[in-house]
Write a structure and sequence with these properties.
The longest helix is centred in the last third of the chain and has 18 residues, at about 100-120. The protein has helices at about 15-25, 40-45, 65-75, 100-120, 120-135; strands spanning about 10, 30, 50-55, 75-80, 95. By secondary structure, it is an alpha/beta fold. Helix 2 packs across helix 3 (about 65-75). Helix 1 (about 15-25) links the parallel strand 1 and strand 2 (about 30). The protein has five helices and five strands, in the order E-H-E-H-E-H-E-E-H-H. The model has no long low-confidence stretch (mean pLDDT about 85).
C-alpha cells in the first residue's frame, strides 16, 4: 500500500555489501540517514516492526551493539545468521524468511530471555576485563 513505512529499519555504516543487501530488501526496509544514538535511536526505531541486521563483512557473527539497541527498543531482529547460540526462527527472524507480526513478540521475548540467562552482566564485565588485560 502506498504511503506505508517499511516494516524494518537498518542503522549503521553502509558499505557496498550492506547497501546491496538493503537495496534488495527495499520494499520492506529502509536505512536511517545519519547517526542515531541513545534516545534519538529509540525514537527513530519506534514506528518499525523490527531492526534489520546486515553484516559489515560476510560471515556468521553477532554485532552486539545493534542487537542490544534492538532489545532496548523492544524490536525483534531480522538478520543474516548470528553466532553465539542465537537461533534463527527462535531468537530472530532469518533475513528473507516470512515475517509474522504475531510471532514477532514471542521471538523478541525468547531472544531477551536467552540473552539474560546466558550473559549475566557481572560475567560479561569479568570477561571484558580478562580479554583487555591480555592485550
Amino acid at each position: 500500500m502506498p504511503g506505508l513505512r517499511p516494516a524494518f529499519d537498518f542503522f549503521g555504516a553502509l558499505n557496498a555489501r550492506r547497501k546491496a543487501a538493503l537495496d534488495g530488501y527495499a520494499e520492506r526496509a529502509c536505512g536511517l540517514d545519519g547517526q542515531y544514538f541513545n534516545e534519538d535511536l529509540l525514537t527513530a526505531l519506534r514506528p518499525y516492526a523490527g531492526v534489520l541486521n546486515l553484516h559489515f563483512d560476510a560471515g556468521t557473527y553477532t554485532e552486539a551493539p545493534r542487537l542490544l539497541s534492538a532489545m532496548r527498543a523492544g524490536k525483534v531482529m531480522v538478520s543474516e545468521p548470528l553466532a553465539s547460540g542465537l537461533v534463527a526462527g527462535q531468537h530472530y527472524f532469518k533475513l528473507g524468511a516470512e515475517f509474522d507480526e504475531t510471532q514477532a513478540r514471542e521471538t523478541f521475548e525468547a531472544c531477551a530471555t536467552y540473552l539474560c540467562e546466558t550473559y549475566e552482566f557481572q560475567t560479561f564485565l569479568d570477561e571484558v576485563l580478562r580479554v583487555n588485560a591480555a592485550l
